[in-house]
Amino acid sequence: MLLRNHPVSVVTNSSYVYGVEVECVFRVFVPHKQIKTVPLLSSFAVKCMPSVRGMYGETIEIPCDPFIQTENTMMIKWKYQKTDGSPQDLIVKSKDQDPLISVPDALKHRVSMVANSSLLLSGARLTDQGTFTCMVVTTANIFEHQIKLEVLKSPEGLEIFDKAEELEIGKLTKLGVCTAKNANPAAEIMWLKNNQALMDDGKGIFITKDVKVDLGTLLSTTTSTLKYSAQKEDDGAVFTCRAKHIVGEPITSSITLNVTYSPETVELLVTPQDPLVEGDNMTLKCVADGNPAPTSFNFHLKGETIKVENQNAFTITNVTRDASGEYKCSLIDDRGLEASKNVTVNYLDINLSPSGRIEKLAGKALEVTLQIYSSAAHSVSWKKNNRILDNEPKFPKIAYSDSGVYECEVALGPLSRKASFELVVQGAPVISSLSKHSSDDGKYKVLTCEAEGFPKPAVTWNINGTLITESPFSNGKIIQKFAVVPSENLTVQCTVSNKFGSDSKSIDVLPYTHVSRDQTKLVVGVVLGLLVATVLIGLAYWLYLKKSKQGSWKTAENENGSSEEEKKLEEKVEENSQKAEV
User: Fold this and answer.
1) Cα–Cα distance between 478 and 451 in angstroms, integer?
2) pLDDT tens for residues 335-347?
3) Which keywords does this Swiss-Prot/TrEMBL entry list (predicted)?
4) pTM for the complete prediction?
5) Is the domain 266-342 a CATH 2.120.10.80 member?
């Protein structure tokens, strides 16, 4: 660094001494011969001038250096340096005397001196700024203490003028003028978008700044103007003007940007979306992206154009399958911006054959046909007497158990269709079973006759007895239980009949004897004894015959006699055998 052969002044950072800000100025003396590089300093002097800052309109205390005041102080004088550089006496106070005030009109009635020799200045103004000097005269010397006065004032609020109501895309527009009034020093203004600082880029952002000083008050007003070229995404953005000052916190003022632009796209919406079925109300809604958004549209409904103003929707009530097809909407003033959508109205029709009440003879066939007309895939379910069936009913050979109410349900989304028929199986009754068993107490016989047929067959018995129970007639089936007490061997017949015919079956019933368990054992023992006796007699007879044939002493007469005896024995055996069977 090259230095000329004259003093160079360097202003350092300020510091505070005894509560007063001190600004030091260093004067550096450089030897004449060393001009290429900075030499070691041969000598230097330091002159520090303290300064006092006070707020505009308030009372400011300007201190006098206490180190230059001694017991030998004879007089203290406060002076003020005029704008032309000449000094102006303010207050003179001699020892043991009252202060003598001689001030210019600008400071009249606003200055005074307190006990510590400080100067009080009330109602501080920017015109008061300057250098004040405290001169102390002692018996031995005269000292002067200079203090620089600076008056501060924060801006009187922040306001944005000339706000743009709306901005067009790509068009450079003045967004607003931000003003911070009457401050000292002048306020610094910054623009932000959504809390992000904006910088002048010379393209889409232009920021100009201006500071004006009031000649009367010397207060500064800062003005910042923002010109901005908006984009579509800037719609709704918040632009903020922020003012910073050395006194107090930053203050802000904001505006919300409204970006206007012509529509670029159009969309057609259909509600309900899916599925749309016959009987629904269908609403067409046209949506455009302009700002402000268009409010009037043309709806093109299968060859018909309907103009809708001050709204963007059109409703078709109670739609049918004929409403299926392509729909369009467009801007009234720009047919080129158009949107379309294909609409399908779902429908469902069914035809069940047979239907209603169907009467069929048992053993015959019945064909069931379900025809379905629908716009899309569907589901089918069957029930018989409100119970779900696994499969569609088929009747190649009708049985009485097939009787009942059959219902089918076909579903397509929210659409549902039902159809039903009642199958009544008719025919002559047939007895499927005739059985007997003893009652629990052993006092009577219970006969059970089961039959199928329709209409309900009548059940009759060929003997007198007592009807115990008759089951409910269901699916062409009836069961009747009949009690009898036979006194002899009986042939009991069950007969069932209706208008189509009849059927009968018989069963033998033996008389029922009441014997005790001991009597039963006795009878069994007697029977067994007779059987054993018969066997023994037969064996003895056989041995007798064998010996008779071997003896030669027997005569013909004896042989004849033996024959008669043998005949009698055989009759006896046969009689015993019959008793044993009984």
Assistant:
1) 6
2) 889 999 999 999 9
3) Disulfide bond, Glycoprotein, Immunoglobulin domain, Membrane, Transmembrane, Transmembrane helix
4) 0.51
5) no
